[in-house]
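Q: Got a minute? One more chain.
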Amino acid sequence: MIPEIKWGVLGCAQIAENSVIPAIIKGSNSDFYAVASRDPEKLKRFQGKFHCQKIYFNYDDLLDDPEVQAVYIPLPNGVHKEWTIKAARKGKHVLCEKPIALHAEDTLEMIKECDANKVKLMEAFMYRYTDRTRKVQDILNSGVLGEVKYINSQFRFFLDHEDDYRWEPTQGGGSLYDVGCYPLNFTGMVTGCAPVAMKAEYRLHKGVDSAFSAILTYENGIIANINCGFNAFFRVYSEIVGTQGVLEVPDTFLGNAGTITLITAGGRESLPVKESDRYRMEIEDFSAAILENRPPLFSLEETVRNMKIIDQLLDMTYRKGC
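A: Always. Here it is, folded:
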């Protein structure tokens, strides 16, 4: 029998209900054991839908359960640090939704606490587990694009709910935190380093960015453009331009089947991409990392690099002086 990690989930967020809890249930080495919420109606519905063994009416009680080995934190961005540190101090491994925190300094503190308590921590960038991402990495490693010169990446959608927490400054609202972290991470995956210079433009709504664009310049000459927003039609797309070819990556951060397109002097080649159960693979990898006492696929070094760039972009724009 394959060993299983017993998971607890802090909160009844939509992403937990629609994606991560089903992934835990389907996972070959994971068990959906407990959920906590301050909303009794949501707890009742989750228990009826998912049949977990335990429900808790506050997060601390779940963390006090000795059976819980790992927790998933889908809470608002502004409390990721608080509950990651509390979980670590209770000996729980933590898979935390992106962005992992509101500042790079907070991220480093979270990592320090997890290290001190000998638990693993990973930021939940599920797209890194897709067939699409693997093929992008294979093409980059093959050298067929030549020397990479430009990267363009975007993630936007129309957020029309004015009471959504993503409009709340104190909860880490704004499009850069919510969806801009993906293009930034994709760019970091391609370049493997941090930019040496940045410029940014943004639009504000209710005190946070409803749209954010940035130009990142790297020491080796690469220029990257990232775009994100809550104020326009859904669009997820990236391209990598090299001296010998171009790679077009529609649906960059999604798990659906499709194609990516390689363009070289020899013509256009459509490369098939298989559908990927990205959340299940993320859960299985993190559970295996715990069981095998190894690092998970997505590294904390990348997480810290991403957060430092977000810090710099916000500090040079509307967060300046705050």
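A: Residues 131-275 form a domain with the Dihydrodipicolinate Reductase; domain 2 fold (CATH 3.30.360.10).
Q: Perfect, thanks.
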